[in-house]
Design a protein that fits this description.
Length: 554
């Protein structure tokens, strides 16, 4: 079976499944063998069913007593397998896909499962794949509000508006508007080459979280789109410019007269102003589905000191809740082990402690992880450790800084590379500005009670804001000269008469004299340590104090 399934369009390429004829030859062989087996069970039932009824039903899963119904049920099973192997339904709009799936569930108009029918179905789909996929995108166009001038009827702009009549009409199981947004998520996911596409239930979950925070922007799917839901049901979506151009290119290839203009070249967006651009990885849709639907957040479970095996379990429970800590619990029984392992590896890096046994895994946190979990479900981005230079300060470094810090001497504080808040925990939350380039880390900081949390690159923030703080505590990124650059930026941020306490590589000690001369500050190396951070080798560390003189009155 040879099918033309390579879809390559100007500026837009889809990754499609490679279909091997051997796969289908094997499938048809298994189908015929299974059909013969079920027919044989039926004959046995007709002859001897009254003798061994339970055995036949158990062995064959046979509850239908006619050849026609047996064949129909088996046809349904194998059509589902064809859809799963080829992914052919992924290129249809949600309503068309659900219509086909519904016909299989309701046993309506089921075509015979034969080589001829399967081949015709695949050829009809993949030979017209460009048109089918473009029409899926076109269907999204048609779902946009015609009353808002932001929408363009001929191409995707970076901002789109969908005008639902109410929140219930947007989030409902059969919502037309929810289908449009789900189509958009799937189109973007396909263009990114993802094999595991978002499920309809996951789109409803994301819309529900937006509806719980009406009027606020929420970032979805690693920044591919940013979504705001209003109380009246209107949805505003901002799509990444490159993705919008990608989708326009596909439709332009099918409808060149309407969309010829979208194939013009666009200048690349400028990178971050920092000298290194941090990288984020994406949590897969499968792992995000588990997190949204199969994981609970509660107080951490601990062994009850009063429990003993011989005592009445209803009176003395084996486990009690530790209301000072929270846990995310995963099960050992989830069907997809790969997605479970992926999720657990992320939680392991984020949690404070773990409790693992044969029945469950507890990932324990010293803060309520609800905001963090919401970020992973909705946004999905996870900061890559090396480019983000996230090497959390150790307990020994924490204790050293605690000795140097006198919070009563200052009114305002700053942590410019706050991470998960290890050093920020030394500062009064209501008086502290925490900055971090990772949105996930920002959600964690908010969960720990810090009210002024800013999602930004510290170097960019200092250039665009004039506010100053009295005391800065920091463990900046070290690689590629960033320790020096971030230290100088912190001096710019510091108010006259203020203090910086910084964790730096020992190589920075040779630069302190130049810093004193350039910025008229005084420096002191308070500690010299050999320290091993998580995921690093042993490093030479200095903890320094930088004092900025008070402003002189003229």
């Amino acid at each position: 079976m040879t099918l033309p399934i390579n879809l390559a369009l100007p500026n837009a390429t889809l990754n499609l499944p490679t279909i091997h004829s051997a796969v289908f030859e094997t499938m048809f062989t298994k189908y015929q063998a299974e059909l013969d087996k079920r027919y044989n069970y039926l004959e046995q039932w007709n002859d001897f069913g009254h003798i061994f009824e339970d055995y036949i039903i158990q062995e064959s899963n046979l509850h239908i007593y006619s050849k026609e119904k047996i064949k129909m049920h088996l046809d349904i099973e194998y059509w589902k397998k064809v859809h799963a192997i080829t992914g052919m339904l992924n290129y249809l709009d949600t309503k068309s896909k659900e219509s086909i799936e519904s016909s299989l569930i309701n046993k309506e108009n089921i075509p015979d499962f034969s080589i001829e029918n399967v081949q015709k179905s695949l050829e009809d789909t993949f030979c017209n794949l460009e048109v089918l996929f473009a029409k899926r995108i076109e269907g999204i166009f048609k779902g946009l509000s015609s009353y808002h001038v932001t929408n363009n009827a001929f191409k995707f702009s970076d901002k789109l508006i969908i005008n639902s009549s109410s929140l219930a009409n947007l989030i409902g199981c059969n919502s037309h508007y929810g289908s449009i947004i789900h189509d958009l998520r799937n189109v973007i996911s396909l263009l990114q080459g993802n094999c595991c596409l978002p499920k309809r239930t996951s789109t409803r979950t994301l819309l529900t979280k937006n509806a719980d925070n009406t009027g606020k922007w929420m970032v979805w799917d690693g920044g591919c789109m940013t979504v705001k839901v209003f109380k009246k049901g209107t949805v505003h979506l901002i799509i990444d410019q490159n993705i919008a151009e990608h989708m326009n290119a596909i439709v332009a290839n099918i409808y060149p007269e309407q969309l010829a203009s979208v194939l013009k070249a666009h200048k690349q967006k400028k990178e971050l102003k920092s000298n290194v651009v941090p990288i984020n990885s994406m949590l897969s849709n499968g792992a995000r589905d588990i997190l949204a639907n199969n994981v609970s957040i509660d107080y951490a479970k601990i062994e009850n000191p009063n429990w003993a095996p011989h005592k009445n379990k209803t009176q003395v429970p084996r486990f009690i809740k530790d209301k000072t800590r929270y846990s995310i619990e995963t099960s050992t029984t989830y069907a997809n082990k790969a997605y479970t392992a992926e999720l657990e590896s992320v939680l392991f890096e984020l949690c404070t402690d773990t409790d693992i046994n044969a029945y469950y895994k507890q990932f324990i946190f010293d803060f309520d992880p609800t905001l963090m979990v919401d970020h992973l479900i909705v946004d999905g981005r996870i900061p890559e450790m090396v480019t983000h230079q996230f090497y959390e300060s150790t307990d020994r470094i924490y204790e050293c800084i605690e000795q140097l810090l006198v919070t009563s001497e200052y009114k305002t504080f700053g942590e410019p590379n706050a991470g998960n808040g290890k050093l920020a925990n030394l500062l009064p939350p209501e008086q502290t500005t925490c900055i971090d380039i990772s949105k996930l880390r920002c959600r964690i900081l908010e969960s720990k009670g810090f009210s002024d949390v800013i999602h930004d690159d510290f170097l960019n923030y200092v250039k665009t804001h004039k506010e100053e703080v009295d005391c800065v505590v920091m463990n900046p990124p070290w690689s590629k000269g960033r320790a020096n650059i971030h230290t100088l930026a912190a001096i710019e941020w510091l108010a006259p008469g203020g203090k910086i306490i910084a964790v730096l590589p020992s190589t920075m000690e040779s630069k302190l004299q130049d810093i004193e001369t350039q910025y008229s500050v005084s420096t002191n190396v308070a500690f010299r340590l050999k320290e091993k951070f998580k995921h690093s080798s042993e490093l030479n560390v200095i903890i320094i104090e930088i004092d900025k003189p008070k402003a002189t009155l003229m």
